[in-house]
């Protein structure tokens, strides 16, 4: 049986780490590099070449490509309303508890320890309630800020604008199509599913790029 790509999440310490360690140390996640290496060995050569960055990313942190580091500190404007502030606070508290975020640190502490930094604004995406589902409010990073119009005066492009474009095939299926696909699968077929938030929070980012993710 192949090894699991996930292990029990690391236990979080109650002690707040130093600013220097937060911006320079690898953040250990529950992802298991040997399991990913084993899985990649089963793929065709073309896929292995395209996904060669996965194991180093698990071991050392995933790079977002050639991101420009700020020459001065850039504070993002608030991207949520006063009424949504409790949602942001609850998200922050849970992120700290889960080890997905660390701090809080003052801007001066960060600048004195690692230099200028750029903020990624938080925003709330609201999904209205339906007859079968309650309303949902998701806290998201707005990696598209600043816009192209704003970037000139702010002095830095958005993370999304700096990312290298790549074409990846993605097929969306309706629930009935998924049910049909699973009903016709062989007994040896394997399937898995993870919420995007779970996957996103498991990926450790590269320490040398963290000044763009404050």
Automatic annotation (TrEMBL):
<protein>
    <submittedName>
        <fullName>Uncharacterized protein</fullName>
    </submittedName>
</protein>
